[in-house]
Amino acid sequence: MATHGAxxxxxxxxxxxxxxxxxxxxxxxxxxxDRLLFDGIPWVxxxxxxxxxxxxxxxxxxVEVLYLTDLLTEALASEAARDGAITTALAGLHLxxxxxxxxxxxxxxxxxxxxxxxxxAGIRNDEVRGGYGLVTSLLxxxxxxxxxxxxxxxxxxxSVWVRDRVAVTSLAMPARSRETxxxxxxxxxxxxxxxxxxxxxxxxxxxxxxxVLLLAxxxxxxxxxxxxxxxxxxxxxxxxxSAGLAHTVLAVPIAQERATMHLDTVCTMVDVDKIVMYPxxxxxxxxxxxxxxxxxxxxVADAEPxxxxxxxxxxxxxxxxxxxxxxxxxAEREQWDxxxxxxxxxxxxxxxxxxxxxxxxxxxxxxxxxxxIAGSELGSGRGGPRCMxxxxxxxxLPAD
Length: 400
Ligand SMILES: NC(=O)NCCC[C@H](N)C(=O)O
Description:
alpha/beta, L-arginine/glycine Amidinotransferase, Chain A, Pentein, 2 domains, 6-stranded mixed beta sheet, globular, binds citrulline, Arg_deiminase, cytoplasm, hydrolase, EC 3.5.3.6, arginine deiminase activity
C-alpha cells in the first residue's frame, strides 16, 4: 500500500492531490461567477497551461502528482460507488421526482469517465435533450440541474491529511458543498486508499481545509471565519484529540471577508519556525489554545496573540514572521493575489505565484527558496499554490 499522511506544513512533499482545471471552468459566466466564487472568467486553456506548469514544477522536485478526476474515475469503476455518487448528486430538491429518475437512468448508462465529467462539470437544463417534463420546461435553459464545481481546483479545501488519517471536510458555501461528496468517495472506494481511516465528513459542522494548518507535530491551527464555524473547529478539535492526532488546536478568529476566507489566505508556513504573514492582520491575529480534557469538555485558554500562542504550543522560542509586500498597499494587493498562500515542498522551499514580487523578495531575504509559477488565470478563483494542492504524503520532519 502507498504511504500517506502529513504531520507538518513543511516536511518534504512526496505526493500531492491536484485538480487540472477542466470543463467546469467553461461554465462560468458574468452572471454566475459570483455565486460560483470566482472573481472573473478565466481563460481556460491558459489556466490549464499554468496548472500544467505548476504540476511540472512539483514533479521536477520529486513530487508524485495525483489528479482528482483520475482517482474519481478509477473509484467509479465499482457499480456501488457509481450508484452512491449518482444518488447524492441528484439529491437536490430542485429536480423533482420525474427529472431525478430520468437523470438517474441517463447517468447510470454513462461510463466512469463520462460520469466523472458530469459530476464535475455539471449538467445544464438545455443539455437534457428535448426537455423532460414540467421541471425542465419551467427552468431556464441555462439553469444547472447538477451544479458545476469550478472550485475543485482548490483541492486543499475538501480534504486534509492529519498524520495517517484523512479528514473529509464540510464546505460552507453551497457552490462547493458537493466537492466533499467526491473526496469522500475517492477515499472510501479507490483501491489506493483502502483501509485509510477518515475523520470529520461532509455531514458534520463546517470545516474547510484552507483553515487547517499543521504548525508542528501535534499542533494544529484552525481558522474560524467565513468558512470554518466555531462549532466546526470544536468538532474537529474533539476528533483529532480522541484519535491522538494532536495535543493542541489553536482556534484563530479571522475576519469574515472574501479577502480572508481561509487562514491560509493570511499566513502559511515556509519553514519549521517561519511563517509568511499579511502584516495588516499580524498584530491583531489572536488564538485560543484548545487542549483535551479527560472525559470532559475541551479546555480553552484565554486568547493570546497568535504568534505567541503558536510558539508556545510548538515549543519553540519564536515563530518568525515574514511579511507580505513592502508597504501596506503593496501588502494588501499581494495578499489579495495570494502572496501568503505558498506551498512548502520542503523546509525553506516554497512554491509561490510569480506576480507577488515584493513578497517573494521578502521570502528570499529570509532564506526561503521560491519556486515561482504563473497564476494570472488560476488566480481568478482567489487561490494560490497552497489552495490548489492537498498534500497526501509529506515526510515527517526529523525529530530534534
Ligand atoms: N484555501 C483557500 O483559500 N482556497 C481558495 C478557495 C477559493 C474559492 N474560490 C472559494 O471561494 O472557496
